[in-house]
Each structure stands twice: as C-alpha cells, then as structure tokens.
Amino acid sequence: MVSALCVLVFLGIVSQFLAIEITPTISDGVPETFNMTRKPFEKIGNGYYYLERNVNLNWFAAFESCRKMDAQLVAFQTLEEWNSVILHLESNKIEGIFWTSGTDLANNEEHVWFTTGQKVTLDSIWNEGEPNNDGGNEHCDVVLSAKDSIGLNDLECELKRLYICEAPQPITASFVIW
Ligand SMILES: [Ca+2]
Ligand SMILES: [Ca+2]
Questions:
Q1: Which single residue of 32, 86, 136, 146 has CA 20 to 30 Å from 171?
Q2: Distance between Cα 130 and ligand 2 center (Å)
Q3: What's the gap in Å between 95 CA and the centre of ligand 1?
Q4: Which fold has domain 38-168?
Q5: In angstroms, what is the span from residue 177 Cα to ligand 1's centroid?
C-alpha cells in the first residue's frame, strides 16, 4: 500500500515537470484479466487462495497453518466470492471437506467469520438443514464439496479436515497518462 502511494506521488511530481496529465486509480483486488501469480496461492475470482488438499487438521490447527502463511482461514463475505470459489471446486472436480473461518464458538448459533468478526449473512450458501449443531457440538464450519452438492455445514471443531486459506486482499494501483 505504501509503495503504491509512493509511486502515485512520484508520478504526480513527474507530471508537473513534463506537463502531462496523469489520472491515478486504486481499486481492491486484482483485475480478472491480470494473470499474476503468488505462490502457493492460486487466483480464484479477484482473490488468492490456498486449497490444502492433502493434510487434514482440526479447525484450530488449520487456523494456525493459514496464519503461518501470512493468510487467514477463508471468509466468504460476498456471494460473488463464494460463487468464484465454488465454481473453481466444481470445474476442477475438487471434492473434499474444507474448514473455513466460520464458527459460532463465541455465541452459540451465531455464526461469524472468525477472521473478520462479520456475521455469516449468506443464508443461501448453507447446505439444506444446516447449520444444525448436530449432537450439540458442531461449532466450526466447512465447505462440503461433493459430486452433486456444495455448501456450508457446521462440524465438530476437533475433527481433522482439509482447509482453505485466503491471502490478504491485494490492491491494484493504476494510472492513465494523457
Ligand atoms: Ca474473503
Ligand atoms: Ca452440521
């Protein structure tokens, strides 16, 4: 962020000397058309994600694992984000059970994205009948990706499952020169 601002300030100074007009813009995310890589994350929609497909961890260990990568367990804040990731899972035939940062450990039956503190407001992304707190001990949320259905489900946090990490949202600084 700081370096992007430095570039814009620099361009502002240059434009004074060269009598050209520079129009800067800063936007969230990376445009769909940009093909930038950030290993081990892969670009899905406007974000960068890491899908752990081999190592199963409990919810807490999965949370720690993402933090070690300077990332967070995934939080689906918008339907657009959810649809992008789901489309990626479906089109690549990726089946599995992946931890998200969704949990109601703080307040029972009030699911939030633990990485942002925001409520899980997208009712349509839950599997039918979920969250059901089955057995009274399901407080952490997974994406259940099966052949014929994909949705959110609450599970016991101690269960070992795969997980999805989300890299911090990048910003794009661009400019038009006249
Ligand atoms: Ca997110
Ligand atoms: Ca459940």
A1: 86
A2: 5
A3: 20
A4: Mannose-Binding Protein A; Chain A (3.10.100)
A5: 33
pLDDT of residue 1: 54
User: 21 C-alpha vs ligand 1 centroid, how far in Å?
Assistant: 36
CA of 13 to the centre of ligand 2 (A): 57
103 C-alpha to ligand 2 centroid (Å): 12
Q: Domain map of the chain by residue range?
A: 38-168
Q: Which residues of 89-128 are buried (b: 16+ CB within 10 A; e: fewer)?
A: beeeeeebbbbbbbbbeeeeeebbbbbeeeebeeeebbbe
**Cα 25 to averaged position of ligand 1 atoms, centre (Å):** 22
Mean pLDDT by 10 residues, the chain (178 residues): 68 74 84 79 92 98 98 97 97 97 97 97 95 97 95 98 93 85
Report d(CA 178, CA 170) in Å as an integer: 27
DSSP character string of 107-176: STT--EETTT--B---GGGBPTT----GGG---EEEEEE-SS-EEEEEE-TTS-EEEEEEPPPPEEEEEE
Q: What is the pTM of this model?
A: 0.82
